[in-house]
Amino acid sequence: MNKKKITKNANIREVLAEYPQLLEVFLDHEIACATCHMSAFETIEEGVSSHGIDVDKFIQLLNDHIEFVKTED
After folding, report:
1. How far is CA 73 from CA 6, 21, 38, 69, in A?
2. For the segment 40-61, what is each residue's pLDDT rounded down to a tens digit?
3. Exposed/middle/buried for 22, CB within 10 Å: 0-12, 13-18, 19+?
4. pTM across the whole model
């Protein structure tokens, strides 16, 4: 399965639609906007930075997580 890299400009809802397993990463970091109606309109950068989390580190975490899942397939 060919998985594309997630960027900070990606829409939260679209990312979670493609990678539903990432919901646990958002919730582990107390980023509830992943389950909020605003996720349809917010980018990861907008949602994560509003919680005071380093966006670049969070994006790396998401990409590491999907890469790990990819190797498990």
Report:
1. 19, 13, 31, 7
2. 899 999 999 988 999 999 999 9
3. buried
4. 0.83
